[in-house]
Write a structure and sequence with these properties.
Chain lengths: ~140, ~110
């Protein structure tokens, strides 16, 4: 694997106020590459989805740590990794189906993974029940 | 921080959301919207997104929830003036098949 040009690591407690902190921090970092408004907005949205899922589903509002790693390469590929050590997902394929949600409040649409996969060029989700979730997303900037 | 401004005139309740809509901000917008809808009993609810630059899927849940509540009290629910970035996520979810979206707000910021 070739060496990244620049990288950033952030650890944030799973507070909902950090959803905005996380996506803004990633946006500022990626802004080094002069992305378009649309590219930045896609990345912010995908980060917001992954971090919100960690808070809402992974840690179920209990205290935990969210790990965010961002790297970019000289060919303008941006790689974003978001991890939690929460409850994990038993069936990842089912969870990624648009409109699928385990939420019972009626306030979630089950579109988070659909947003991540539409707005990014590549999305991989690794998880085992009880072992947290690791999201890997790639976006190639123009 | 102020998240919502409202206007009520001729049975039309306009809910103007201010700033980012995510899971964090959705809570207070939801509470304020629902109490206004219950209190005013409008015939039309306009969800004004002209001052929203960022929205994620938590916003979809927020909108669908207020749409359902409006239907329950017999009010028509419409989304007005979404920015392009917001419109993209509304379209991704196929919201326009369910809810009328009027006016755009597409001057780039
Ligand atoms: N980090 C996570 N830890 C545990 N479960 C998760 C995690 N992320 C997602 N899930 C599971 O996958 C489901 C689908 O996630 P997705 O983001 O697509 O929808 P949602 O969060 O339920 O709704 P929305 O994102 O539209 O508000 C969730 O309902 C949850 O069961
Ligand atoms: Mg989600």
């Amino acid at each position: 694997m070739k060496k990244s040009e620049n990288s950033m690591k952030i650890y944030l407690p799973s507070l909902s106020v950090n959803e905005g902190v996380a996506r803004s921090a990633v946006a500022v970092f990626v802004a080094q590459l002069n992305p378009t408004i649309e590219e930045i907005s896609d990345i912010k949205c995908a980060v917001s989805e992954a971090v919100t899922n960690a808070i809402v589903h992974g840690y179920k509002y209990s205290q935990g740590v969210i790990y965010i790693g961002v790297k970019y390469y000289s060919d303008r590929t941006v790689v974003i990794e978001i991890k939690d050590k929460g409850c994990g997902i038993e069936n990842v394929a089912e969870a990624m189906t648009p409109l699928f949600t385990t939420d019972t409040s009626g306030e979630r649409s089950g579109m988070g993974f659909a947003v991540m996969s539409t707005f990014m060029d590549k999305l991989d989700v690794y998880s085992k029940k009880g072992e947290g979730v690791r999201i890997l997303m790639v976006k190639k900037l123009g | 921080m102020e998240k919502l401004r409202f206007n009520y005139e001729n049975e039309v309740l306009t809910l103007k959301i201010i700033g980012d809509i995510d899971h964090h901000s959705a809570v207070s917008v939801r509470e304020q919207s629902d109490s206004l809808i219950f209190e005013k009993r409008p015939t039309i609810v306009l969800f004004d997104l002209s001052a929203v630059e960022f929205m994620d899927s938590s916003g979809l849940g927020l909108i669908l929830g207020r749409f359902t509540l409006s239907e329950e009290i017999g009010a028509e629910f419409k989304i007005i003036k979404p920015a392009r970035s917001v419109l993209r996520i509304l379209e991704l979810a196929g919201i326009e098949r369910l809810i009328k979206i009027e006016g755009d707000n597409n001057e780039e910021k």
